[in-house]
Amino acid sequence: MFSGLLIILVPLIVGYLIPLQQTSLLKLINRLLSWIVYVILFFMGISLAFLDNLASNLLAIFHYSAVSVAVILLCNAAALLWLERSLPWHHAHRQEKLPSRIAMALESLKLCFVVVAGFLLGLTGWAFLQHATEASEYTLIFLLLLVGIQLRNSGMTLKQIVLNRRGMIIAVVVVLSSMAAGVINAFILDLPIKTGLAMASGFGWYSLSGILMTESYGPVIGSATFFNDLIRELLAIMLIPGLVAKSRSTALGLCGATSMDFTLPVLQRSGGLEIVPAAIVHGFILSLLTPLLMALFAS
């Protein structure tokens, strides 16, 4: 019962206990994480090709991801808009010129292409490809170790997290509204409630959530979760500039865990430097909760 939980938590905790001072090693870990994500998603695509009743499973993936992302974003947006009205985020920032959102969206879509490439290779049916699932498990353990090291050396301390009230409040609202959406999705999609909650716990971290869900629930739910969180990030990139002027809390909250990395440049250009600490804290909390909540619901 606890084997899946241990596989996730042990390497994550071990990595978090490793302090690194060398900038070159941290840069190497960041590069390794990028490449390992591609490798695991490639394995995911191969595993997907070996599914029984492939055509019906692809329809199920599309159905699960479309319903899930719609319900989660609606619940998040409603809760965050309520937060903005109840606790306005006052600011005096004038929006700067934005980076290319099309280029950033295409960067995210590269991961989709990797999954498709793995899927096409898997369709060849070569016998050795059937070991893709086992290979992805060992690669996942190494990835979680590196994620733990990255979180430890991100520069964030527990004191900084507690002191940034806005970032913490938005993170709590996103978690609670996502859990409500997970329960709703479970009823709509006729899934166990724990599965719905696990799918809603990715918070946009598609490169990790899809992998973890594949290990726990198989490639159908894993792929649906991956596309759910990927679509969330793409929509956040497109919506941030317009939302910042009307509801900064909503603009930040819809970014989910990516607010501390991928969507941070857009947030900074749109919302100014004052939004950065809240974005980092918000993203840090959700990044920490993603593997923990998924492990909890999958155990």
TrEMBL record:
Keyword Metal-binding: no
Any single GO CC term annotated in Swiss-Prot or TrEMBL for this entry: plasma membrane
Highest taxon listed in the record's lineage: Bacteria
This protein's UniProt keywords: Membrane, Transmembrane, Transmembrane helix
Keyword DNA-binding: no
Segments crossing the lipid bilayer: 6-25, 32-50, 62-83, 104-129, 135-155, 167-189, 275-298
Pfam annotation, one family: Lys_export
GO molecular function, one term: L-lysine efflux transmembrane transporter activity
Protein name: Lysine exporter LysO family protein
Organism: Dryocola boscaweniae
